[in-house]
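EI: anyone free to look at a 144-residue chain?
SC: sure, send it
EI:
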Amino acid sequence: MAEPLLNALRDLYTRLDADLARLPVTCNVCGRCCHFADFDHVLYLSNAETMYLCHDGVPQAGGANACPFLDGPRCAAHERRALGCRTFSCDRRHRDALQSLYEIYHREIKRLAGGAGMPWNYASLAVQIEAARADVRIKSRSNA
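SC: here you go
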C-alpha cells in the first residue's frame, strides 16, 4: 500500500506546486508560520500526508509551539511538506485562491488514501506525529 500511495502523493504535490506557481503568491521562507502558537494557527493533515511527510523518519524534536520539522528558519522537510503548508501564505490577500486549491487537493488526497485502502484520519500535526512515533515504537518492539 505504501509505495504506490507515496508515488501518487508525490505526483499530486508536483501538480499542486505547478498550480501554486501560477498564483502571485511568494514566500520569504522566514519560518514564522511554522511557529504555530505565535502565528495563531494549527496545521491539520491526514495520516496519508503524515506517512509521506515522515517517510524518511519521524522527527523527535519540536514542541507545542513549533513544527518539529523546523530547522532554524527553514523546513527540513520542504520537499515533503503537507498540503496545508503548501497552500498557506502570510500574505492574506491570496487566502481565497489558496483555500480553493486546498479543498481540491484535499479531496484528491482523501480519494487516493481510500483507493490505497488506508482508513482516513485527519488531525493536527502534533496528533499525527505522535501517532507516527507510536507506530515506529510498535514496529521496533515487534522487530526486536
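EI: The two ends are 24 Å apart (CA to CA).
SC: 👍
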